[in-house]
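Please review this one.

:::
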Amino acid sequence: MKKITSIGRILFALPFALFGINHFLQREYYLGMLTSFIPLGAYTIILTGIMLIVASISIMTRKFVKFSTILLAILLFTFIITIHIPHLFSDSDKTVTIIALLKDISLMGGSLMIAGIYAEEG
């Protein structure tokens, strides 16, 4: 069962590293997603990419997992509040926005579950 948990933890963390790298490679795309009240433009995109990569590494290496997964859940909640919900009111194609919203809600839940598991182990 330990191997299954390890595989699951890595499969959960790996996409965050790829999302983080994508924040550097597709910066213009992400800039287009920002709402007007998010400060610092491209710096916010770069900082977000760094945070996603660091969280992924933390989860995969099992270092500071509880801390990083709680911060990851907060970051995902921030995406929900500042990006997805405002886009629900402004985008004409709501399907993509709803999918992204539900994805981040699901990932936030998984992040909190991992934080809870590592809180019990610590």
Q: What stands out?
A: The two ends are 19 Å apart (CA to CA). The mean pLDDT is 91. Residues 2-121 form one domain.
